[in-house]
Amino acid sequence: MYSYIESNKVAAPVLRSIRLLDQLRERIRYLHYSLQTEKAYLYWARFFIRWHGRNGAMRHPKDMGKPEVESFLTMLANERQVSPATHRQALNALLFLYKQVIGQDLEWMNSIGRPPERKRVPVVLTMPEVQSVLGLMDGVEGTLAKLLYGTGMRLAEGLSLRVKDVDFDRKVIVVRSGKGDKDRVVMLPVSLVPVLTAQLVKSRSLWAADRASGHAGVFMPHALEAKYPRAGQSWAWHWVFPSPTLSIDPRSGVERRHHLFEERLGRKLKLAVEQAAIAKHVSAHTLRHSFATHMLQSGTDIRTVQELLGHGDVSTTMIYTHVLKVAAGGAKSPLDALTGLTT
CATH number, domain at 254? Predict the structure, then answer.
């Protein structure tokens, strides 16, 4: 149902919640945004309101406008010195608040300047460096790291992998609801089959324990829990990388088993990089960058790499070809010509 705001000519959703932040949360969930986006948007909306009310005069966002939004964003850029990506996230959160919750789609919202995207050269590990790092990692974190490098999946995609989406017979993995809510298919490395099989044995043990103790099933996306009430308790929908402990679902309040938390891999990866004496800023995403670069280096067609990575535009994938051109000696320094050195 919608009400109509004559002044702004915008159809505003009728929300059940009374408090503004609860309304924002309700609207985000109605549009099936991720929990990560929900947390970020709530943070920026709360920050925006409190910052303008820091002198004791708390105001509702509907009573504020372009000057208040721009002054807040200016503060973030000049005082907090946030990155352009963080700056855009804050702006997007406020635009969502005004348009989707308050019901105001005003001209000034489209005229607020956005910081330009900065093209960063990705950090890429050489194949010997990858081998060294992966060799220093064991356990579930080691298996996850090998999976990310071997398939090019994002960390969130690897963590949310379900048992049903690993096809050992065809040697493929189906990535569900990747970035942009898109599905895609990636290869299952043959060398990963034994360790992934062992990981599933451990995962099934936790699944069996949950069933025996009567705990709720795993989280089901897009209201599938209502459509298939028992699917969340099935082995097929269980996590490949489940958390060793139960936790409270932040949206439903139900105690259930979540997948492994992101910090687990980050800590182990950082330690392995230090032990390998690699002087690079390495994160889980570096494994994805390395996958793409090494695939192109081996002669794989760029369109194939684009599909494996799930990029919507091949221009995004092209950044890895730029890295390769210089690394492979595609451009010679004039200093080498003076000194007569060629290698």
Answer: 1.10.443.10
Q: At what angle do helices 20-30 and 35-52 cross, to 10 degrees?
A: 160
If asked whether residues 89 and 176 sit together in one domain, one would say no
Tens digit of pLDDT for each residue in 106-164? 676 666 766 666 777 889 999 999 999 999 999 999 999 999 999 999 999 999 999 99
Domain limits at 321? 127-325
Q: List C-alpha distances in Å: 97 to 60, 90, 92, 103, 125.
A: 12, 11, 9, 8, 40
Nearest Cα to Cα of residue 161 among 192, 136, 134: 192
Is residue 66 located within the same domain as residue 134? no
Of 62, 84, 111, the one marking the end of a domain is 111
What separation in angstroms does the CA of 64 have from each of 24, 49, 68, 257?
17, 10, 6, 42
What is the count of structural domains for the chain?
Answer: 2
Catalytic sites, residue numbers? 154, 179, 285, 288, 311, 320
pTM of the full structure:
0.81
Residue 8 belongs to a domain: yes
State the distance between the two ends of the chain, measured CA to CA, in whole angstroms: 70
